[in-house]
Design brief:
Layout lengths: L2 H28 L1
Length: 31
């Protein structure tokens, strides 16, 4: 059961990285 929270935390970090990448891409498109 202890693995589930760590997986959720890892998924959140991945989602944040993806969101940052998407924001950067949007900025590049605007430029």
């Amino acid at each position: 059961d202890e693995d589930i929270p760590t997986h959720k935390a890892a998924n959140v970090m991945v989602e944040r990285k993806i969101n940052k990448a998407r924001k950067k891409r949007k900025i590049y498109y605007k430029l």
